[in-house]
């Protein structure tokens, strides 16, 4: 028989944490949602139907024990809820903030399908772990074994690399992370704006790893500071978790004009400015939207990050061009709604055909699109509408067309490192090992640009795969001292 604290979805309405008013939040980079109070978190958790087949859990890449920690939250057993949430995820409060719950857990909630509105899973997850940090329930990393000095090197300090580092450290390995940036976190630090993920949230996770004995080598570029082979000599196993950072481009006339910039460079400059760094390209206006007419091209989450960042920088007007319609965009519907509230204009079924300007961009010329027959991916392919050209004035055009892998074999000085026809690293999907013995790969560099939650899942899986490898391959000779 169901506990009387649950199954309240017919009596309690869905209620997300209140958002700050659009006008107020558009002037800063703080998160837009206010936190739940305990009573509200308990109330919303009590709406869970405790269904026999929890589709929320099935559709979560981490297969989090969502109904169980919702029940514990509803019963006021918050510390137990945190322990259960933390058992499957290394970053539950981060996933609670940036996962597209509308496409994953909440979008597949049984009571959502029944018309009662999904349980606010992401907001409760965030509340549970933020409370755990505040109450001191987040314990230091506990090393559970002695691996006899075996060490692993991890290339990339994004969510996949950080997750694998934590889990391998728990298993007793000496862990070294090598990252080309000056701060750990990857896109969590430099790609995602503060209004979605305040940087203190990432920083405390990184600090916990350092306090647990994990060594971070910042400003370290593989290929410049050491080749892949040299790192392989230092460690008993390596993990490549670099993500994908090569910006996609289009071959339209005028694409080389000043004022046409890649999305990640734009977002990184904004985040660095938030840290208080010196950012000349921001200060001289190259990567700053203040007072400008901004056009963002793309329909994914990165495009949404760009349009909302431009609003906060004081753009004169912000327009998003996307070649498909609202229903077929890859980004979060919630983010689109937030952007519209903040004054962003969306031009659906529109694609750029050229950029006007002499030295600098002055306008984007575009044409209307229609959706034709499905392509190889199953999505209806956009086609240009004849005679439908139009023009949008622009001082800054931001290209948010997605990311491809960098040429890692050449960058790392490792031509033996196998890649797929898409440029991602080729791995044995059973062992997660690349073509080089003892070198593993995980995250976007294997699956292509994807979600943070999938990177965490891959980091969890590759840590176990590396552990199985290292259990039977103890170091046979002394290793060079890690730099």
Automatic annotation (TrEMBL):
Pfam families, A to Z: Fer4_20, Pyr_redox_2
Residue stretches making up the FAD/NAD(P)-binding domain: 152-459
Keywords: 4Fe-4S, Iron, Iron-sulfur, Metal-binding, Oxidoreductase
All copies of domain Dihydroprymidine dehydrogenase, residue ranges: 26-136
NCBIfam families for the chain: gltD_gamma_fam
Protein name according to UniProt: NAD(P)-dependent oxidoreductase
UniProt organism field: Sphingoaurantiacus capsulatus
């Amino acid at each position: 028989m169901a506990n009387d604290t649950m199954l309240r979805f017919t009596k309690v309405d869905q209620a997300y944490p209140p958002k700050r008013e659009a006008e107020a939040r558009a002037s800063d980079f703080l998160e837009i949602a206010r936190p739940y109070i305990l009573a509200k978190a308990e109330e919303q958790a009590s709406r869970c139907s405790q269904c026999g087949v929890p589709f929320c859990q099935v559709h979560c890449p981490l297969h989090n024990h969502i109904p169980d920690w919702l029940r514990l939250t509803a019963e006021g057993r918050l510390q137990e809820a945190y322990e259960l949430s933390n058992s499957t995820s290394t970053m539950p409060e981060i996933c609670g903030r940036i996962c597209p719950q509308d496409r994953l857990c909440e979008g597949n909630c049984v009571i959502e399908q029944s018309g009662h509105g999904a349980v606010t899973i992401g907001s409760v997850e965030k509340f549970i772990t933020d409370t755990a940090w505040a109450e001191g329930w987040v314990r230091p990393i506990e090393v559970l074994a002695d691996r006899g000095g075996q060490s692993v090197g991890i290339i990339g300090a994004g969510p996949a690399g950080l997750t694998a580092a934590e889990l391998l450290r728990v298993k007793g390995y000496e862990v070294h992370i090598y990252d080309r940036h000056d701060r750990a976190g990857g896109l969590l630090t430099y790609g995602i704006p503060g209004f979605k993920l305040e940087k203190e949230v990432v920083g405390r996770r990184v600090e916990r790893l350092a306090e647990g004995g994990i060594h971070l080598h910042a400003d370290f570029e593989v290929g410049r500071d050491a080749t892949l082979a040299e790192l392989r000599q230092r460690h008993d196993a390596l993990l490549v978790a670099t993500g994908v950072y090569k910006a996609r481009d289009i071959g339209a006339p005028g694409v080389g004009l000043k004022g046409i910039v890649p999305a990640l460079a734009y977002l990184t400059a904004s985040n660095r400015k938030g840290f208080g760094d010196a950012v000349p390209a921001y200060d001289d206006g190259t990567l700053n939207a203040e007072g400008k007419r901004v056009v963002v091209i793309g329909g994914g989450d990165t495009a949404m990050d760009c349009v909302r960042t431009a609003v906060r920088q004081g753009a004169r007007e912000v327009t998003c061009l996307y070649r498909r319609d609202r229903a077929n965009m890859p980004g979060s519907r919630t983010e689109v709604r937030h952007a519209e509230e903040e004054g962003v204009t969306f031009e659906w079924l529109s694609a750029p055909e050229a950029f006007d300007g002499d030295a600098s961009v002055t306008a984007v010329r575009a044409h209307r699109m229609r959706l034709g027959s499905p392509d190889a991916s199953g999505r209806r392919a956009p086609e240009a509408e004849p005679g439908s050209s139009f023009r949008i004035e622009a001082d800054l055009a931001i290209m948010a067309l997605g990311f491809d892998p960098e040429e890692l074999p050449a960058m790392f000085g490792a031509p033996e490192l196998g890649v797929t026809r898409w440029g991602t690293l080729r791995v044995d999907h059973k062992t997660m090992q690349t073509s080089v013995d003892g070198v593993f790969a995980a995250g976007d560099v294997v699956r292509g640009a994807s979600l943070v939650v999938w990177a965490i899942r891959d980091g969890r899986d590759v840590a176990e795969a590396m552990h199985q490898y290292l259990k039977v391959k103890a170091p046979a000779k002394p290793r060079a001292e890690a730099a």
